[in-house]
Write a structure and sequence with these properties.
Helices cover about 25% and strands about 35% of the residues. By secondary structure, it is an alpha+beta fold. It folds into four domains: about 80 residues; about 80 residues, Beta Barrel (Thrombin, subunit H), CATH 2.40.10; about 110 residues, Thrombin, subunit H (Beta Barrel); about 100 residues, Pdz3 Domain, CATH 2.30.42.10. Helix 1 runs antiparallel to helix 2.
């Protein structure tokens, strides 16, 4: 397009200059001076430039419209092809929890429809851990409509939102199709991506198209600053969690995980969703598939609260940063070392616990069974102990 624009303008200018020179030479009986020739050329160029620019703009605009139309058509065709290929590896997860009686005395059964995708041909299915909370029975609905009971192998919460189910593949009508896993390292800002997930209307897989806003970002979720995230404006809704994010080459680059409704400061946001980078997802999922869990350190903390000046004032504490320990396991490493609820955890291995590095983020940097320095505040006193975290296992 730019090449055509340049040719049109250059051709007009060359023609104008040649015409001016020829006219100057043959229209006068006396010899043309250099000044007269320069003036003639200048006038010719000025006279030709306007129409040439107008013609070039018209031709360029027409070519641009055709080019954009072709690009849109190509992308639509590619998205349709991607759906045809990738949907063979995406499943729906139908989960139910135990019966309970609600406040009105009615017996209800909690249920959830989520999305998952095939990890391998051995029957391992990856999905988002948060959609399986409080659920006790699971069925996987395959692309061909087969409904199979599934076993929950394990998950990585609260460190990541990855969970793995397993189905029996021995008597399947059709073999499982493993998607083409790409690498999150190739994802770039502005890249077009396609999100796959269960619709909010029923047991169907739908897609949405968007762009990548940030290929490597973080977002605070519950007690953890979740990293390894891809931010996108592809529409995500309830039921999409556990689906896949795919680039235009058909490579799975992420697992759709969450929708942002507000910032950490409480400001409303819209059109912001996150997928966990597929590199991080596969590392965790393959370990769970092999061993039932992903190795993480634990001190036996069941519940804690990140301190702020407001929270510290409410709790009548002298320190305004750290993690206020609410509940710990009696058999955990902290309890064995004499740490108890009401203590404030200030540092782990020299890492200060604060809004930038919550407790779980600091914990994730440690190795199980390796002693580290722990800084505790209790009743106006500071204590430093050497404690090794245990290995978290089922």
């Amino acid at each position: 397009m730019r090449h055509t624009f340049t040719i049109v303008v250059a051709s007009a200018l060359i023609g104008a200059i040649c015409g001016a020179v020829i006219a100057s030479v043959f229209s006068s009986r006396h010899e043309t001076s250099q000044e007269e020739l320069d003036a003639s050329v200048t006038a010719a160029v000025e006279g030709a430039l306007g129409p040439a620019l107008e013609e070039a703009m018209q031709r360029s605009s027409a070519e641009l419209a055709v080019q954009l139309e072709n690009e849109v058509s190509d992308q639509q065709g590619r998205v349709a092809q991607i759906y045809s290929e990738v949907s063979k590896s995406v499943v729906i997860i139908d989960a139910e929890g135990p019966e309970r009686t609600n406040e009105e005395g009615i017996v209800v059964v909690p249920a959830a429809l989520a999305t998952g995708f095939v990890l391998d041909r051995q029957g391992h299915i990856i999905t988002a851990a948060h959609v399986l909370e409080e659920m006790t029975s699971f069925r996987v609905i395959l692309p061909n409509g087969e409904r199979l009971p599934a076993e929950r192998l394990g998950d990585d919460r609260p460190f990541s939102d990855v969970a793995v189910l397993r189905i029996d593949v021995e008597n399947l009508e059709e073999g499982l199709v493993v998607p083409d896993f790409g690498s999150s390292q190739t994802v770039r800002t502005g890249e077009t991506v396609v999100a796959f997930g269960n619709t909010i209307l029923g047991e169907e897989i739908a897609i949405s198209v968007g762009i990548v806003s940030d290929p490597d970002t973080t977002f605070f979720r519950e007690r953890y600053e979740q990293d390894n995230l891809i931010q996108t404006d592809a529409a995500l809704n309830h039921g999409n969690s556990g689906g896949v994010l795919v680039d235009l080459d058909g490579h799975v680059v992420g697992m759709t995980a969450m929708i942002a409704r507000e910032t950490r400061d409480g400001e409303f946001v819209d059109g912001v969703g996150f997928a966990i980078q597929i590199d991080a997802v596969l590392e965790v999922a393959r370990e769970i598939a092999a061993n039932g869990f992903f190795p993480r350190p634990t001190f036996g903390v069941v519940n804690e609260r990140l301190l702020t000046p407001t929270a510290a004032a409410q709790l009548d504490l002298e320190v305004t940063e750290g993690s206020f320990l609410i509940e710990i396991k009696r058999s955990g490493a902290f309890a064995r070392a004499g740490i108890r609820p009401g203590d404030v955890l200030r540092e782990l291995n020299g890492i200060r616990i604060n809004a930038e590095t919550p407790y779980l983020n600091a914990l994730a940097t440690l190795e199980p069974n390796v002693p580290i320095s722990v800084h505790i505040h209790r009743g106006g006193e500071e204590y430093r102990l050497s404690i090794a975290p245990d290995l978290r296992a089922p």
